[in-house]
Amino acid sequence: MSIECVSHITFIVRDLERMGRFLCEGLGAVEVYDSKGKNFSVSREKFFVLGGTWLAAMEGIPPSERTYRHLAFKVSEAELPSFERRLRELGVDIKPPRPRVEGEGLSLYFYDFDNHLYELHTGTLEERLARYRNEF
After folding, report:
1. N- to C-terminal Cα distance for the chain?
2. Domains of the chain (ranges plus CATH)?
3. pLDDT tens track for 18-65
4. Could you give the maximum distance between any two Cα atoms of the chain, in Å?
């Protein structure tokens, strides 16, 4: 018995159309389903695929406050400025960068319109562990 992988990640949002623009125009996701007119779950939902990951967005009451809990996607360092530009054009709230140690990779942190925090990260787990081992 073992876990195979993450099946999907669900976000509760006020406006599915706005979330669709955020995911598709801002991050390059592909919308693959809209339950409009025929809900099979607890509310209307849309499904997206981003980087091979199934993301679900459901209409509802999103988190009322922002936290550091986040979802991070791997991107190349060369593409990071392009993502930042696209997200800014959508009016996404981009956080100032946090202090980083050399070799940890670069990150772009930003909130969607419903208080969910995301990160675009250029590093890998292996690179970070190697960097941290060299610190001690």
Report:
1. 36
2. 8-133 (3.10.180.10)
3. 999 999 999 999 999 999 978 888 899 999 999 999 999 999 999 999
4. 57
Buried b (16+ CB within 10 A) or exposed e, 72-82: eeebeeeebee
Please determine, for residue 6, whether its predicted confidence score (pLDDT) is greater than 60: yes
Q: How far is residue 110 CA from its own chain's centroid?
A: 9
Instruction: Mark whether 59 is an active-site residue.
Output: no
136: CB partners within 8 A, 6+ apart = none
Identified catalytic residue from 17, 25, 45, 89: 45
The tens digit of pLDDT for each residue in 95-122 reads 998 887 777 889 999 999 999 999 999 9
Handedness of CA 40, 31, 69, 133 (dihedral sign): positive
